[in-house]
Amino acid sequence: YNKSQFELYTLTTWLLQEQRKGKIDSELATVISSISLACKQIAAAVGRSGISSLTGVAGTGENVQGEEQKKLDVISNDIFCNCLRMSGRTGVIASEEEATPVAVEETDSGNYIVVFDPLDGSSNIDAGISVGSIFGIYEPSISVGSIFGIYEPSETCMVDGDLDQSLEACITNVCQPGKNLLVAGYCLYSSCHTMVLTIGDGVYGFTLDPYVGEFVLTHNRIQVPEVGKIYSFNEGNYAMWDEPTKKYMDSLKDPAKWGGKPYSARYIGSLVGDFHRTLLYGGIYGYPGDAKNKNGKLRLLYECAPMSFIAEQAGGMGSTGKERVLDIQPTEVHQRVPLMIGSKKEVEYYESFYKN
Ligand code: P6P
């Protein structure tokens, strides 16, 4: 028989190798493993959503973003929180689906800070279009030893008119610039389920082998092409964009500028799917600010910063159009920033429209 067919190089094997190389310690590897378990569970839930009547709205009303929570949003958030709690290495979590950061009591050590969007693009779920989870891991910026108890999102945590000191410490720990990230990754739930991960030394892709339930290394040190003739923007917002963005978009579609062959448009309305294609094929994904939302729609902490860390580790860029995303010091957990991300030359071309 073909021996190599059974020599799977799994995420677990890769994590052990990275520990041997001293790139990460066992505590951080434990957190990454717990996240991979969450992604496997979400992949199963998403794959069966139509069958187990998990599509549609949760009936829990709107989340902090004013978006109708889908059943799978709530389930995916619970899955992430449970896995991270059970890892015993997580100090604080911040999720798109939680109003405030949550201090995790069951932390034995490590005390890592984990930020995540458990199911991004979930409005696409009912149509079976790709969705994904996005995550980032930080060291605590201040001691979390003094933090205990678990905040229910509804709990005001206001003590004598001031934010409870512990919650304030949680927020301080969570609101770190992306350049502090130790780990960033996403899991794409699509025709195949692929986890893409960086621990600060290149970008690796692991595809879920449904037969053994393991993430298997399939993309070794991904490099985003330096240029790419694909743009991924919601052009429905064109009328609300500022002049530099309009001029940029007009230029991409001008055949005369590109030897007769303008750029192609690809937009599925799901950041993880659009970004994954951009990372592998090259090009640019953009969600600019507009007249209605000057900072655009995407969240800095658990969408733009982790994706920008991955892009930079793959030789690309993540920018607001005016500044490097990873340099931005968050001022609040759910703040939004404009995002231009992908091939270095393509992001620089967008930025040039603000410089001239
Ligand atoms: P629009 C999904 O809601 C999301 O956060 C991203 O996944 C996606 O890229 C973007 O918003 C789509 O937003 O305004 O184009 O529908």
From TrEMBL:
Q: Which reaction does it catalyse?
A: beta-D-fructose 1,6-bisphosphate + H2O = beta-D-fructose 6-phosphate + phosphate
Please state every residue range assigned to the domain named Fructose-1-6-bisphosphatase class I N-terminal: 10-219
Q: Does the keyword Magnesium apply?
A: yes
Instruction: Name its co-factor(s).
Output: Mg(2+)
Stretches assigned to the Fructose-1-6-bisphosphatase class 1 C-terminal domain: 224-354
What's the EC number here? 3.1.3.11
Its UniProt pathway annotation is:
Carbohydrate biosynthesis; Calvin cycle
Q: If you read the UniProt record, what top EC class would you report for this enzyme, in one word?
A: hydrolase
Q: Which UniProt keywords apply?
A: Carbohydrate metabolism, Hydrolase, Magnesium, Metal-binding
Q: Which family does it belong to?
A: Belongs to the FBPase class 1 family.
Q: How does it assemble?
A: Homotetramer.
Designated name of the protein: fructose-bisphosphatase
Phylogenetic classification of the source organism: Eukaryota, Viridiplantae, Chlorophyta, core chlorophytes, Chlorophyceae
